[in-house]
Specification:
Layout: H1 2-9, E1 15-18, H2 24-31, E2 34-35, E3 45-46, E4 56-59, H3 61-75, H4 91-103, E5 135-136, H5 144-149, H6 159-179, H7 184-190, H8 193-207, H9 214-223, H10 233-251, H11 260-266, H12 269-296, H13 304-314, H14 340-345, H15 347-361, H16 369-382, H17 387-398, H18 433-445, H19 457-489, H20 501-505, H21 513-516, H22 518-539, H23 543-554, E6 568-571, E7 574-577, H24 579-586, H25 611-627, H26 629-636, H27 641-650, H28 653-660, H29 685-700, H30 705-726
Parallel strand pairs: 2-5
Antiparallel strand pairs: 1-4, 3-4, 6-7
Helix pairs in contact: 3-6, 4-10, 6-12, 8-9, 10-12, 10-13, 12-15, 15-19, 16-22, 17-18, 19-22, 19-23, 26-27, 29-30
């Protein structure tokens, strides 16, 4: 395919790519005749001729192919999925990896494109119409693309130029199509509380169908530069692949020569490209993309893909060429001081997104193993030796008062994307690290941004809340594990013939640990324990604070080890859940001890019962109860042992009392309050299996069906007599 692309590249072919396919910010700016600052679109916008349908970009074959290749990642989510394929095994994922290795090599240089006509020339793209003026909404930089091929060079031009324009074009297309769905200006406006209030007012006006609201026009003006974008998990995984390769590409930069004059003569365009590839092309758009994902991604385990992409960007040292020394003990690798500049120039990636993750973690069920794993992963990354200290140093540089350096006041905090070409003569190195940090923060969040310190009191309180939730989740997981063990141990032979209390009540803790098993419960406890340990290392939590939290968690259980009721307040209508109580129920921290208090014959059919047998046996027992009601009443009225036996096994006075005075039951005349026969236990699958086993053993000893039935009835009668004599206090519905 690439050979065909290069073959067409040597011809005078231009292809129209609809502007409507571009991301929202670019599409809106071009439609408003504002030239995007990205040099990828310069000299390519084509206005429709008379009768045309819309704006187009005039692209050469390489650009045309790469645009459609990049957009297929976003558009293919609407196609029907016939079977599940791992993204890392898909052809698209492998092609992206191949193109990145080819055009952004970590070793050597980019291979020159094959050409069937070396003497031919690649003509320049058709210039845009000069009749319609374009203005730039930003101070766009003169990139390599514009410097070397503002008008396409010939095939036999400088190989370095060919090398750079293909590499930069590929990267710009990937970043624009995958990450640029919200502009920086739009993001900064949407952070304003006033704008958030207007958006909320507009949504409320839409829901109440008041379209004449004054907030509508304001919101539509803000909405002009953005689109409703919902990235898929595969999209995020491909972006993570891009981030990991860009770290490896940037870290393959050769060490700078000691002499500046030598540098100006020996540094190749590809080496200069490696130097600025992340701050100039990726940082801003990736930050806004991550902010959008952190704020809009569902609170489920699929967030793991976004989390790993974020953690991959935060750890460029993982993709450095040097290897850590081999040691017998797997000690955590300390982060070198040479990464301090990267951490300071990406401070918001570490601090603000960490606060965003804390807010997500506080709203998730930490008893779930997948959620516990995500908390463990983040805590483990930030607990790497020397990383927290460098982040704290970056915050201190940002909070350094401006009055310390008076000559800095006339400076303008500009975006990393602003300025001249990185091939032009470089500006003198800025030695003021504080200015670099402030420039990074203000360029992304605006001059009015109120920074929230990661190691400040407010975030520290959030960490303490998370630590308390981790302790509560550990208690909950332990109680679920103990309850499961007790349930397994309490299974007896006679429980196969009757309803156990847990089955009748149908209580459920609302967590997925019951289906996962004891091994995953232990794994969850390990994740939470290590996460708590890492958080204590990062934020220097003392033993006294941990002890206090454990005591608070311990008060959630009473003297008998049973859970207390969820937090609620008493009212004239009964107990009302508070917001804390709702949170406790949702996360499985506390629950009401619900028990089925109605007629056991009328309870819903359970999963361990045969539905047809339940209905058939209910009709049979109803027929018997109606037919022999008088006889059973006479037997229960006797004062001898037979009467005692019948009263114990055929009546349930507690249930009759509850239903008689229940405000829910309206027709009380339809209920049979007297003695009755219940055959529903025969519909249980384990009862049927037990009977089949007994018949199979009887046939082994040559006992016929009649004799086997006699043995079963005799044994059950003896069991009923024993229960009457020695366990009269047991609840009748348990037998």
């Amino acid at each position: 395919m690439m050979k065909l692309v290069y073959k067409l590249q040597a011809e005078e072919y231009r292809y129209d790519f609809p502007v409507s396919y571009l991301p929202g910010p670019v599409k809106a700016s071009i439609q408003e005749q504002v030239l995007p600052e990205c040099s990828l679109y310069h000299n390519k916008v084509q206005f429709p001729s008379s009768g045309g349908l819309g704006l187009n970009l005039a692209l050469n074959p390489f650009e045309y192919y790469m645009f459609y290749f990049a957009i297929s990642l976003i558009t293919q989510k609407n196609s029907p999925v016939t079977h599940h394929v791992s993204p890392s095994n898909s052809a698209y994922f492998i092609l992206v990896d191949t193109y990145l290795k080819c055009f952004l090599p970590t070793e050597g240089s980019v291979l020159p494109p094959p050409s069937s006509n070396p003497g031919g020339a690649i003509p320049s793209p058709t210039p845009r119409s000069p009749a319609v003026p374009f203005s730039s909404y930003g101070m766009h930089h003169t990139s390599l693309l514009k410097r070397h091929i503002a008008h396409q060079p010939s095939v036999n031009a400088d190989p370095a130029s060919q090398e750079i324009w293909r590499s930069e074009t590929l990267l710009q297309i990937f970043v624009e199509m995958w990450l640029h769905h919200y502009s920086l200006e739009m993001y900064q406006k949407m952070q304003s509380p006033h704008v958030k209030l207007e958006v909320l007012h507009y949504r409320l006006s839409i829901s109440s169908k008041h379209h004449g609201s004054p907030a509508q026009s304001s919101y539509q003006a803000l909405h002009a530069y953005q689109e409703s974008f919902k990235p898929t998990e595969e999209h995020v995984l491909v972006v993570r692949l891009l981030v990991k390769h860009l770290h490896a590409f940037s870290n393959s930069l050769k060490p700078e020569p000691l002499s500046p004059s030598a540098h100006s003569h020996t540094a190749s365009p590809l080496e200069e490209f490696k130097r600025v590839v992340i701050p100039r092309f990726v940082q801003e758009k990736l930050y806004i993309f991550l902010q959008h994902c952190f704020g809009h991604w569902p609170l489920d385990a699929s967030f793991r893909a976004v989390l790993e992409m974020w953690l991959s960007y935060l750890q460029p040292w993982r993709y450095a060429p040097e290897k850590p020394p081999q040691s017998t003990e797997p000690l955590p690798r300390s982060v070198s001081d040479k990464w301090a500049a990267f951490i300071q120039e990406n401070l918001l990636m570490y601090t603000k997104l960490f606060v965003g993750f804390l807010n997500r973690a506080l709203r998730t069920d930490l008893v779930s193993p997948k959620n516990a794993l995500m908390v463990f992963r983040v805590a483990k990354v930030f607990a790497q030796p020397n990383l927290a200290e460098m982040i704290l140093k970056g915050e201190q540089l940002f909070l350094e008062p401006e009055l310390v350096i008076p000559h800095r006041q006339h400076r303008l905090f500009m975006s990393p994307t602003l300025g001249g070409s990185f091939l032009s003569s470089r500006s003198p190195a800025v030695t003021d690290a504080s200015f670099k940090v402030k420039s990074h923060v203000y360029s992304l969040e605006g001059q009015d941004f109120q920074y929230k310190q990661m190691f400040g009191a407010e975030v520290r309180n959030l960490v303490l809340k998370l630590a308390q939730l981790i302790c509560q989740a550990q208690q909950t997981a332990k109680s679920i594990s103990d309850h499961s063990a007790e349930t397994m141990a309490s299974q007896s032979f006679f429980s196969w013939f009757r309803f156990t209390p847990s089955e009748v009540n149908g209580s459920y803790t609302g967590n997925d640990l019951d289906e996962i098993g004891q091994d995953s419960i232990k794994k969850t406890d390990e994740y939470l324990e290590k996460a708590l340990e890492y958080l204590c290392q990062i934020f220097k939590l003392s033993e006294a604070q941990l002890t206090q939290m454990m005591m608070k968690c311990g008060t959630a259980q009473d003297e008998n080890g049973k859970k207390q009721l969820p937090d609620c307040i008493a009212s004239e209508n009964g107990l009302i859940l508070t917001p804390l109580g709702r949170y406790q129920i949702i996360n499985g921290l506390r629950r009401f001890e619900l028990q089925y208090q109605g007629d056991t014959e009328l309870q819903p059919i359970r999963s361990y019962e045969n539905a047809a047998l339940v209905r058939l046996l209910f009709r049979l027992s109803s027929l018997l109860n109606h037919r022999f009601a008088d006889q059973m009443e006479m037997l229960c009225s006797r004062e001898d042992f037979v009467g005692r036996l019948c009263r114990y096994h055929l009546t349930n006075p507690q249930l009759a009392q509850k239903i008689r005075y229940s405000p829910v039951v309206r027709d009380r005349t339809s209920h049979n309050w007297g003695p009755r026969i219940s055959l529903r236990f025969l519909a249980s699958y384990r009862t049927l299996i037990s009977l089949l086993m007994i018949y199979f053993l009887a046939s082994w000893f040559h006992i016929g069906p009649v004799g086997c039935t006699f043995i079963i009835l005799t044994g059950y009668f003896l069991y009923a007599v024993i229960m009457t004599f020695f366990f009269e206090g047991w609840k009748p519905h348990e037998h």
